[in-house]
Specification:
With 216 residues, the chain is α+β, with helices and mostly antiparallel strands. It has 9 helices and 5 strands, in the order αααββαβααααββα.
Length: 216
Amino acid sequence: MSAGAATMMLIDRHDGGGVRTYLLAHPDVIPEAMQRLRDRETGKTIAAGRAAIETPVGSAWAGNPRGDVTLVEYYDYNCGYCRASLPTVAALVKSDPGLRVVYRELPILAPSSHDAALASLAAAHQGRFAAFHDALYAAGQVSKASIAAVARQTGVAASATAVPADEAAITANMKAAGELGMTGTPSWVIGDRVMIGAQTLEQLQDAVATARHPGS
């Protein structure tokens, strides 16, 4: 039974008909209410770890460093949808001067994803995250060879790609993703909401607006 059907059964049991009639006439209210309930529950988990979730590693961020809203993207360099989201995120940052974007590695798709995540963190420590990030996605299939080539191209020191703290950071990202119910990449944390999968510019803008003006 779907959550919507269960909701209607509860209404039938406890309501004389007025609420059911209204909801049948305005079915868009149910998914909105369910989304608010999910956001409320997810928000508790996000709130407990918000500082860790929203604090970038080195230069792994974009936009306004003191923005009033932070969007966090969990990504994998082997994820085609993450690659396709690059121009969307760029357009979002350009359209919103009050937004900060934080990037978090979630290497779940292949062993090479883990190698790329470590190199990405090294780039972030060296202030070269943006150049490395875009170049590795543009390089096509991820491999040790392509990671090394992009590191050389963007001036990232390869010797810095095996820092124990970076392994710990990836483990923490995995743990947070599990606690937040992320089932794939890209996944996004915006305010008290988790969104999974590629999003349109308008969807991300709506989520940012909700985070900026909660309850409105």
